[in-house]
Each structure stands twice: as structure tokens, then as C-alpha cells.
Amino acid sequence: MITAIRVRALAATALLGVVELAFPCGAEPLARSTLTRFHDPVIVPTSELGVLPNRRTDHLRLFALHAGALEPIPFQIDAFDESHDLVTIHGEAPREFDFDDDDELVFMAKDAGDAAPVDAFPPDADVVLEIRVDDPVSAERGWAYLAHFASDAPAASPISYARYDTATDVARGRLYAIQYYPGLNFFTGMRFVSADGTEGDNVLHRMKIRLNPTFKWGWSPVFKEDDFSAEVEAVKNGPVRSIRRVRQQLMLGPFLPRSGGIVYTYYYFSSFVTPTYFSFPWMVLKALKDFRFTGVSDFNAGALGMKYWDAANPEGLRFTGHNQIAVNAETDHDWWALGGPSGSCVHIFMLPKELTDAGIVRGTIFVDNATAVDSEDSDPVTGEHAVGYSLLNVVEAGRAGSFETMMATVFLPEPYRPGAEEGALAMMNQPLRASVEPLERKGGKAHAIEQGKNVAR
Predict the structure, then answer these.
(1) How many whole angstroms separate alpha carbon 177 and alpha carbon 409?
(2) Which of 50, 110, 238, 457 has the fewest CB atoms within 10 Å, i.e. the most exposed one?
(3) Domain carrying residue 141
(4) How far is the C-alpha of 77 from the C-alpha of 104, rounded, in Å?
(5) Left, alpha or beta for 371 (phi > 0: left; psi -120 to 50: alpha)?
(6) Range among 83-97, 270-284, 328-342 rated most confident
(7) Which tens digits make up the pLDDT trace of 350-397?
(8) What's the sign of the alpha-carbon dihedral 48, 264, 241, 156?
């Protein structure tokens, strides 16, 4: 069974006008941006920014060329240590600091622009780095420019895309709001947010998790979502993403060690992502006779009329309350989608290839039962309107070791249509690539940065 979990989630027009007036307008782009990735963050390791005069974050601004005008765009630099743990001081992550090679510069791909000429930049920017963003699937391309100012850097973009509120345990992006259960690490609320910023009604009753290991000596405990203790150790709110770090533990029993680890969630404009690192120790795996895992989002009556899709149900299943249960366990599933008048989202559950190759299957669950009792103690599959996953063949696969999984929920700006999941899946499976070079070295060889799993953080 799992014994260690290490789970690494509008512009102010007047101000922008002042910033734009300081720069040359009507700059003729060297090439037009073709990048259409909407949900993706661009994550650049700070080890690629070595030519800067100094590494003070408050000396930097990020720009993009849109319609011939150079504009500041939201960005942040996050401090991590060598183990990729968020650096904090007394629980607070620094906003401005001297970065080192272990940190990350982050901005949204949708904010990238055209390729800019040298004379588009203010003369007091002593170094400008060109960041080229490439889509490995479509070969689309966009650009952003990191400018260093020795002093008096111009105003940064006032836009902020996501925030986690420690007082209310609510995480918000531009397209969603998520409510956590007080003091724990599961959701009891989900709201879709419209393009004008209006929050819809809560459609979620509760996340439900059941871990049911059966040991060879007959003991078969059941653990649920509120059996995990959780302590919020750090939160960083930045213009592009908010990061929440939680220490989570589970007491397996009086004769077994407490297990747990660090849970990270990264909240972006339209998505939140949770990478998870866990281990199957050989000793525990050999002691197991069976292992069952089920995790669902149990929606309330606000979900009536919404539809559910997965790869096996391209036509969709509608929530009507007519006691319908569909469990897809024949093949492996890595996504499901939910959509209706209030909004749409795609949920993704990624397993490492070594586990799927060994035979572990992600079965999807759809439950539509208006007569069910909506209680905290009920089994997940007896929820009212529930969707989620079960893990199958865990013991049969017999794979001990440490592994990484990834969960993400991506909120769509338009109603779901079959195929809309492709953009969300591309964000996770075919991440954008970035290359960095000083603007002065036009024609020099760009050093490509394979982002890989970084895009999911």
C-alpha cells in the first residue's frame, strides 16, 4: 500500500497606458506569434538566466510585443532549494530576493507575443533576454522578453491570475474557485467563474477517498479523506501562480509507522495541478493480499443537468438523478470531463509508464443517484452525483519503488465539446519548450530548455 506520499494547482487600463507610453509604439515585429496554448504556464529554470548583471528579482520586468506595442506581462520567480522544496522564511515565501540556479521563472504562454526588434525596448534596460516558446506538437511559436534594469525598473503588470486565501481556505483562479475543508487537504466546494468574474453556485458536496488495504493476516482497514492530517506549511501568492505546501500524514495503525509527506498544489489562471511522489515499499507490498483505492468528486444537486465524458463515453452521460452507475474498468483512463450551463472542466490523472506497463489500471466511475444519502461516511460509489477513479491491479502488478503521479483540473473558457480535452492533455504530456538568449546575440544558437515535468508544477 502507499506508505509515503510526497505530493509535490483584468488589467488596470490606466496604469498599463502609462507603461506603454514609456516605450516605442508601433514596433514592427520580426515574426508574428502563432502560439495558441491557452492553459499552459511557461517555466524557465533560472540557471538559464546567467548573463544578467545581478540576480535581484525586483530589477527584472517581463514584456511581450502585442499589436506593435510593448507591454509588461505577469511573471514571477519562485525560490526552491536543491530538492525542489519551496524556500520559506518563518513560513513565508519571499516575493523579492536574489535568485539562484535552483529557482523558476514563470509566465503564461497565452501572454507571449510577437518577436520584438532591439529598438522596441527602453534604453535603460541594460540587458534583455529573449525567451522563445515553442509548441512541440503544432510547431507554433511565441516570444517574451526579460529586461534587467540597473535601477528604477518601470511598473510591473498589475494583473494577478490566482490566489490562495489562508483565512478562508479558498483558492481562486480566473475561471474557478476551490474551497478546502478547514484544516485538511480535500475539497468541499467548487465554483465555476465566468469571463466577467462572476462566481457561480457551489456544485461540489465533497471529495471522497477510500484506501482499503487487505493484509495477508486478515486485517482490512478503511481510510478516508479526513483520516489524513494536514498542516499548511507555506503559501506563496504571485501574479502567475499560487503555491500551497501542506504536510500530510496518515496513521496506518498501532503497529505500522505513520506515513506521509509534502503535498504541493500549483494554482494557475485556469487550472490547478498537484504532482504526487509516493512509494510502494517491497515489505508492505509483499504483505498485501488486496488493495483498493477509490477517489471521487461527489457533486450536489447543482450538478443536475450537467454531462460527464470520458474516452469510453464520447457522447456523454447526463446527471438526471435516475440511479445510473457506470464503472469503466476494461481499459485504462487518464481523463474525464464535466460540463453544463455553469461551466466546464477536464480532470487528468497521470501515472508513470512503469506502473501502467505493469498492469495498473485507472478505472473511471460515474454515479447518478438522487436517492443516495449524501454523507461523509458513505462509500464513494454511493454518492449523489459522483465522478472519479479507482486504481485496479495494484497488488497483481507487484511493483515496489518510488513513483510520481500527477493530477490536474483544467477549467475551460467555453462549453466542453469532444476533443476539448486535447489542450489539457497536451499541457501535461507535451509541455511547451523554451529557449533563452540575449537579444544582442541575434542569429546566435539558442539553447533549448526541455521543460518536461516542470510544466506541471
Answers:
(1) 12
(2) 50
(3) 4-159+429-456
(4) 5
(5) alpha
(6) 328-342
(7) 988 888 888 888 989 999 986 665 556 666 666 789 999 988 888 777
(8) negative
